[in-house]
Specification:
The protein is of the alpha/beta class. The protein is built from 8 helices and 10 strands. Helix 4 (116-126) runs parallel beside helix 5. The longest helix has 22 residues, at 2-23.
């Protein structure tokens, strides 16, 4: 009897794990709140059907099952920063998202006082390469609060470092990273010059056609004050650019 029970449990876990990538295609309607809602002028985030979040150590405990039920279809999870920082919540978030059927990808926060080669190797050392993973993300933004590095290289140097990081990670991870950025960094670094890249753009007060005129995008971070069942405190909210059918196509093309 005990042997049968153990085999049953193993089978259940296997089925659950194997089903996870497919579950990500089953879009749940977003039932999010916002502690500081915006009166959008133009196409509001709510008109996009596929929503998700991004998380780091600040979200210490997440009930991923509840979050998934509330409409979290994808999650970008911080894994590394610079050349030596590993986010302490990465492993927990990564496992929890997978078990709940949330499509998840890992992101790296860039640090301008460490060589891009060192940062790329650090990311590759720590980011899990599980089946069903979304593309990795390179988070590019100025960090005026950093106690150790306040460098702001010129645009040409920024782009050079980014291209080095992107090339190494693409070769090592097997997927071309998505670039996350803010309006100010985008302008300062001249990122409109980096053609054929995939973008995840932040704008919490204006629609993206106003904040990033002419720039194509796949993900829009539209709030830093989201309220979601299963998550304590505020959380970043994001929308995918297309329809449910577009989401399935994108997953097919970009999942591992």
């Amino acid at each position: 009897m005990l042997r049968v029970l153990i085999l049953s449990l193993i089978t259940s876990v296997s089925i659950w794990s194997a089903a996870t990538p497919a579950q990500a295609e089953n879009v749940k309607k977003a039932q999010f709140g916002d502690s500081k809602p915006v009166n959008w002028k133009g196409r509001a985030p709510s008109t996009y059907p596929v929503h998700g979040i991004d998380v780091a150590r600040f979200q210490e405990q997440i009930d991923w099952k509840s979050a998934r039920k509330a409409g979290v279809n994808f999650a970008f999870i911080k894994v590394t920063e610079g050349g030596d920082l590993l986010d302490p919540m990465y492993a927990d978030h990564w496992r929890g998202a997978k078990k709940a059927g949330v499509a998840r990808g890992a992101y790296h926060f860039y640090y301008f006082c460490t060589k891009p080669e060192v940062q790329a190797r650090w990311f590759l050392k720590n980011a899990k390469k599980d089946k069903g993973s979304l593309p990795p993300v390179l988070d590019m933004e100025w960090n005026p609060f950093s106690p150790t590095c306040k460098k702001r290289p010129p645009a040409a140097e920024v782009q050079k470092q980014m291209k080095t990081f992107l090339k190494i990670v693409e070769r090592g991870y097997g997927q071309r990273p998505i670039i996350y950025t803010t309006p100010q960094f985008y302008r300062d670094a001249g990122l409109h010059q980096m053609k054929n890249e995939e973008y995840w753009l932040r704008s919490t007060a204006k629609t993206l056609d106003k904040a990033f005129p002419g720039q194509k995008w796949s993900f829009w971070q539209y709030s830093a004050t989201g309220v979601i069942s299963g998550i304590e405190g505020d959380v970043d909210l994001n929308a995918f650019v297309g329809s449910k059918a577009d989401w399935k196509k994108w997953l097919k093309a970009r999942q591992r």
